[in-house]
Amino acid sequence: MMEILDIVDGQDCVIGQAPRSSCHGNPSLVHRVAHVLVFNSAGQVLLQKRSCSKDVQPGRWDTSVGGHLDPGEDYRAGALREMSEELGIVNQPLKLLYS
Asked: What is the pTM (predicted TM-score) of this model?
C-alpha cells in the first residue's frame, strides 16, 4: 500500500500531497512528522534503534517514538497514535516541546 503524506509550506499549511517515496527522495517536499521523547522516573530517555532495513537513517539511534502524520491528522493525534503503535503506550499526557 502506498503511503500518502501531506506536503506543507514554511508555515506548516498543507499545500498538496505526495507519496512517501517521493518525499524521502526530494527535500523540497516537506511533510509532517511527530516525535515523542519518553522518560522514566529517573529522568532517563528511551531511545530506539532503527531497523537496518529502513530507507532513511537505517541502524541509527532515534527518538523514543516517531512517525509520519496521516493526511489531515494533527500533531497530538499523530503522536498518540505512534506511541500506541510503536510502544503500546496509551492515555499518557503529552507536553509540546517544539514544532
From this structure: 0.88
